[in-house]
């Protein structure tokens, strides 16, 4: 299992954003807004992420019980084509 503080996907960087985030321990960090960013951004040149898969990851809750300042994930569109959130746990 790899240890990562956070995964951030940025749609400004490419139009065909695809990612598999699997078998990670995302450590708590209250200095970050969120533990991970799923890549959606309405004001971006490429506003929608697709084929973003989070599978079998563990999010550490930390001292504030949210993992990061506001929570574990932002900008993840569970209805996007190919996007999946599977078996992720606190």
Short description:
It contains no helices and nine strands.
What layout of secondary structure does this protein have?
Blueprint: E1 2-4, E2 7-8, E3 19-22, E4 24-26, E5 34-37, E6 52-55, E7 58-59, E8 71-74, E9 84-86
Parallel strand pairs: 1-4, 2-5, 3-6, 4-7, 5-8, 6-9
Brief descriptors of the model:
90 residues, mainly beta, three-stranded parallel sheet, 0% helix, disordered N terminus
Question: Mind explaining what this structure looks like?
Answer:
This protein is mainly β and 90 residues long. Helix content is 0%, strand content 32%. A three-stranded parallel β-sheet has the order 1-4-7, with no helix packed on it. 24% of the residues are buried. Residues 1-5 have low confidence and may be disordered.
Which stretches are low in confidence, meaning pLDDT under 50 for 5 or more residues running?
A: 1-5
Largest sheet: 3 strands, parallel
- How many DSSP-defined strands? 9
Give the strand order of the largest sheet, numbering strands 1, 2, ... along the chain: 1-4-7
Question: Strand pairing plus helix content: what structural class?
Answer: mainly beta
* Overall 3D shape: globular
Averaged pLDDT, please?
Answer: 85
**Which radius of gyration do the C-alpha atoms yield?**
13 Å
Order of helices and strands: EEEEEEEEE
Helicity range of the residues? under 10%
Span from first to last CA?
Answer: 15 Å
Summed up, the helix count is 0
Strand content: 25-35%
**Quaternary structure annotation:** single chain
